[in-house]
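Onboarding guide, step 5: your first structure request.
Type a short instruction followed by the sequence, for example:

Predict the 3D structure of this protein.
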Amino acid sequence: MATIQYPNFPRANVLVLASDAVQALLPSTLISQADALLDAHRLEDVTDLAEQHRKKLQSMLNMDRHDQDELRYVNQRLGFQCLQETLFEDAGNRLYEGELDPRVLVSYYPELRGELFQEEESVDVMAGVAEHMPSEDSVDDIIAANLVRNYSPHLAPNTREAPPAVELRNILSMTARDMLESYLRKWRRKAAVEATTPQIQAIRMVIDTVLAKLHVNAGKLPDLYALVDQPNTILLSEIETVLINARHINALCKLYKQQNDDTKLLETWSRLVQGDWIDPDISDPLSRMFDLLSDKKDRGLIQHWMPWLVKNDADRALKLLMMTMSSRRRVEDDRQLLQEIQDANPDAGAQLLENLVIHRRSVDSELHTQLATTYADHLLTCLADETTSKLWRAKALSYASGKSDTPFISYFATTTPDSEHKRVRLKTVLFLQGSTLYDPDVIRARLSPHAKLLKLELAILEGKLGNHRSALSILVHDMNDATSAEAYCTLGGEVVPAKTAQVIGERSGLQAWATLVIPLATPGKPVKPGAVPMKKTKTVDEDVKKDLVMILLEVYMSGGEATADRTAQLLNSQAMNLDVVDVISMIPPEWPLRVLSTFVSRSLRRTLHAHHEGQIVKAISQGENLVVADETWDVVREQGAIIEEPFEDDEDDDAGEKLGLELGERVQGEPASFNEKVALHAVGFRPHGEDGGNSVVDIDVAPDGEDNNGMVGSEPGSDTGSGT
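The system replies with structure tokens like these:
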């Protein structure tokens, strides 16, 4: 609703004073003249009057504000009168000269104003102008009223349906829009140079938004893009629907980008990708989406769009996700994201799972089990291919029929032609060996039906489950891979050594999988930098090694004389971890002596060497003990000693009270003690039995090694004589 601002009153230059009154001679003001001419419908005269007054003000150095307000009043009155009579071009010129707020004129175009104005908003309008503003709600109503006033009832059947009236109405409506566009363009240039205030900002917003709507409705694309490309204050919520309906999606995207509305921008591009909308001005919207997400690096936005992106371009989507994924993600977030992507694209989900576990080193056991299951399924898919299954079967038979010190996994990696199926199996073997977080039972249940072709994988799984005998039996009897079996014992239950895994990884481009296999630490020798990318090492308990060697020995012996040579090699290489007595008791009686000869001879030599070494160490220790005893004799003699007798079973209850008696005093059946140092100065040595039977006696050490009775003192290290 408009706020009324009343004009100033006219000023009188001549006053007439009377005895009972004051009379003023008022000049004919510009406003009064204009009002009179407008009432007489002399519009041209009012126009001339306004122009004369404008030129007069321009010739003045200092223009009075009151004169400027009068001129604005006249122009606004004249402009609204022209608007009422559908003289739209003149109306626009006069209203602009009168500096009418463009929001007032826009309010007569309801299809353009939309929701730009709120009920509580108001605009200041001069009182005389507000009283003479058109009472109609819209320009179309003004046009209809003018047609009725001028042509009814002359046009049949009426001014609404008569063809000439319809055509005239369309022309007048087009003219009214052209007038509004011209009016807003002028105001836009004017508002651009004025200081920014809340009122000016509101005016700019209305001007830009309505101009955009006018350009869209008129199909003026160059003007629309010129407006959009310039700094503007277009209200997006008002123009959004208009642009969508007109299929000007490129202009809409530019507005979204200017206002940093990434969510709607991505939504618009996605609809273009899906074909819901079409705009030839936008090329490759999918790439634009990837570029925007890559530049913004908004993880929340990327995660929201990732399921949709993997459906359209899984490779680029996963690459984008890996580039922006945080290293401090929660396990729950990884699981949720993985599930969403798996639902959208199972292949992309498998790639993400592999990246999380292999490259991101996730420690979530559930993800490890999922990846192991995925690899197992891929293996089964490979076996479903007849060519692949025949090739793998031939490789297994060829290796088992020969004698080679090369592990089967190395033989397979070097002799099998490069293919995706080969890569899948190598990845599976390295992961099953290197990971300790998946559930081996689940994977074994999946691979067991194909045990004949997947013996290596099952041996690894048996080792993970602690079924060492079963694992070694597969390696020795089913695969004839003694090298891996012996490495299994050395590594504490691992089929694939870290060095072998590294070589396979370098040759096949599987370094990330190879680093899962942790190398064995060499006692006293650090791992060479770069030898294995993973810097972790592990140790194997010696008792575990011995137990595994004994199990392997039993497995070898269960093969009969066919494995006698392997048994002999094992005995010779692992003699340090085997007890000769246990081994001899296990060897079948019918085996030839040559199987044990080398092992037994070496064991006997080692036992004899250990015995001699022990004797030498014992002799050295005795000598050192004598030296120490000699060095400490003087100290021990100086410090003296306290000798106590043990308590007897039939001692009296008050025996403890007798302790600490005078030297030489004895209590029957009671233990006694004395201070040897006191005895040295108190009395001499008394012969045994002087005071009776078993009692404590004094010891007097005579100078120069002789006692008081001429007895020679004991040598250092000998026992001190005492009577008990």
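Each response can be followed by summary notes, for example: The first helix runs from residue 30 to 39.
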